[in-house]
Amino acid sequence: MTTAKDIMHTGAQWIYREETLDRAAQLMRELNVGALPVSDQNERLCGIITDRDIVVKCVAMGHDPASTRCAELCEGTPRWIDANADVSEVLHEMESHQVKRLPVIENKKLVGMISEVDVAQNLPDEQVAEFVEHVYAR
C-alpha cells in the first residue's frame, strides 16, 4: 500500500497565522515553495497561503503585504491528510475539494506536503490523468 508519507515532499514548514505576508513570501523564497501551511499558536492547521494568494488577494488589491497577516487570507476549512492514509484517500481529498496542495500530518505534527507534482511523479499515468480531470477540468 502506497501512503501519503511515501509520496509527500518532506521539509514543509508552518507559518504562524499572525506573521505578515511579506514574511510568508520570504519564507517561500527560502524554501523554494509556492505554498505554506498556516498554523495557530498550538501548531494546528488554520489554512494554506500561496504565492498566488499574496499577489491576487493582497498586492493586486492595493494592500500592504508588510502589514497584512496570513490569517486574513485563510478561508474555508483547512484540508489535510494523515501520513498513513492510502494514496487513494489522498487523491479523493484533493479531487473532492479541488486542492492542489495537501499538508501531511503525523501525530499532530506537520511532516510534509503533497502537491500535484508529487502526484505526477509517484503515481501511474491513469491515476494522474483522473486527478487532473477532477482537479483542473471543473
TrEMBL record:
* Entry-linked InterPro entries: CBS_dom, CBS_dom_sf, Diverse_CBS-Domain
Q: What name is this protein filed under?
A: CBS domain-containing protein
Which PANTHER family does the record match to this protein?
CBS DOMAIN-CONTAINING PROTEIN, CBS DOMAIN-CONTAINING PROTEIN CBSX3, MITOCHONDRIAL
Coiled-coil regions in this chain?
Answer: none
Keywords (A to Z) from UniProt: CBS domain
Query: CBS domain: from which residue to which, for each copy?
Result: 8-65, 73-130
SMART domains in alphabetical order: CBS
CDD domains associated with the record:
CBS_pair_HRP1_like
Species this protein is from: Streptantibioticus ferralitis
Which Pfam families would you find in this protein's record?
Answer: CBS (PF00571)
